[in-house]
């Protein structure tokens, strides 16, 4: 019998054989198959994609529920806690590299690609090219072949600045909730967590309105040259991360309401908080580089 069965935590918890990994792989298979077929014009690919998404969501719900149950039964030792912390740290590091690649693409485009297309070496190929950023001036794009429709760039006022205030405020409310949990004030922690979730949801609503404004009034689209592609790539992926982080905080809040976590052991809370603060920092970089510069 394990040490946990005698009222002591095992040095390192070894889970029983599980069906969850292979079941998750099946869901991913249908997602990739459907996405590839849908992009190539096969309508049935959409059904496969959404079936895979629903399958994966169901499997992850069961998988996470099992892990939460193991944690609440006291099966996880300090070694497991350290393992979770390292795992979350490496995951956030991978996300740093993810956004670093996109920021690098924006930097290379602005500082190297666009200027090189406008130098003397390319004057014969693109005699009418305007080597400036962003790729629009006086209502016309820098596309000499006319392949990019005229558009207006997105400035920092007012929507991006409002979203910046929302995310910075959510970081403060999350920190207050964390300190409340450390002080064993569960009710206060729950209230501040709900406010944090509400701020995250409001951010997504404002960004959705910003996208609608960009498409309908600014004619700024994903196809609006390198400016449009980098703008939507960076802000869109960040918005997806805000959505994931908001879901994490929502589930943590529900767990708090069910009596989970203590002042001494609450890494599930901390891991979600780490992720949310990372999302905040990335947005500050986006706010400066994408909207101001």
Percent range for β-strand residues:
under 5%
Mean pLDDT: 91
Q: What is the overall shape?
A: globular
In the CATH hierarchy, the architecture of the largest domain is: Up-down Bundle
Strand order in the sheet with the most strands = 1-2
CATH superfamily of the largest domain: Cytochrome c oxidase, subunit III, four-helix bundle
Q: Helix amount, in percent?
A: 55-70%
Radius of gyration: 24 Å
Question: How would you characterize the overall build of this protein?
Answer:
This protein is mostly helical and 293 residues long. The chain has two domains: 1-76, Helix Hairpins (Orthogonal Bundle); 78-292, Four Helix Bundle (Hemerythrin (Met), subunit A). Helices cover 69% and strands 1% of the residues. The protein contains seven helices and two strands, in the order H-H-H-E-E-H-H-H-H. It has helices at residues 20-39, 44-72, 78-117, 159-182, 186-216, 225-257, 267-292, and strands at residues 136-137, 140-141. Strands 1-2 form a two-stranded antiparallel sheet. Strand 1 and strand 2 (140-141) form a beta hairpin. Helix 4 runs antiparallel to helix 5 (186-216). The chain starts with 19 loop residues before the first helix and ends with a helix. Mean pLDDT is 91; it is low at 1-8.
Task: Give a quick summary of the entry.
With about 290 residues, the protein is an all-alpha fold. It contains seven helices and two strands.
């Amino acid at each position: 019998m394990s040490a946990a069965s005698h009222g002591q935590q095992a040095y390192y918890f070894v889970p029983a054989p599980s069906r969850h990994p292979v079941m998750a792989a099946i869901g991913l298979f249908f997602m990739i198959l459907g996405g590839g077929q849908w992009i190539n014009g096969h309508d049935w690919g959409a059904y496969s994609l959404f079936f895979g998404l629903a399958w994966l969501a169901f499997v992850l719900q069961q998988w996470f529920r099992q892990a939460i149950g193991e944690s609440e039964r006291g099966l996880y030792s300090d070694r497991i806690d350290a393992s979770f912390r390292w795992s979350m740290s490496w995951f956030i590091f991978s996300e740093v590299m993810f956004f670093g690649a996109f920021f690098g693409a924006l930097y290379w485009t602005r500082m190297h690609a666009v200027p090189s297309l406008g130098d003397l070496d390319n004057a014969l190929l693109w005699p009418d090219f305007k080597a400036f950023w962003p790729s629009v001036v006086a209502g016309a794009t820098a596309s000499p072949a006319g392949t990019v429709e005229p558009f207006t760039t997105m400035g920092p006022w007012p929507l991006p600045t409002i979203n910046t205030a929302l995310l910075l405020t959510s970081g403060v409310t999350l920190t207050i909730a964390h300190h409340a949990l450390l002080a064993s004030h569960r009710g206060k922690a729950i209230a501040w967590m709900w406010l944090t979730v509400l701020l995250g949801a409001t951010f997504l609503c404002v960004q959705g309105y910003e996208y609608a404004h960009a498409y309908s009034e600014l004619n700024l689209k994903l196809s609006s040259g390198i400016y449009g592609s980098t703008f939507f790539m960076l802000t869109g992926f960040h918005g997806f991360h805000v959505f994931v982080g908001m879901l994490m905080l929502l589930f943590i809040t529900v767990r708090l309401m069910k009596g989970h976590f203590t002042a001494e052991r609450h890494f599930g809370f901390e891991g979600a908080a780490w992720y949310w603060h990372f999302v905040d920092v990335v947005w500050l970089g986006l706010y400066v580089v994408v909207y101001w510069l």
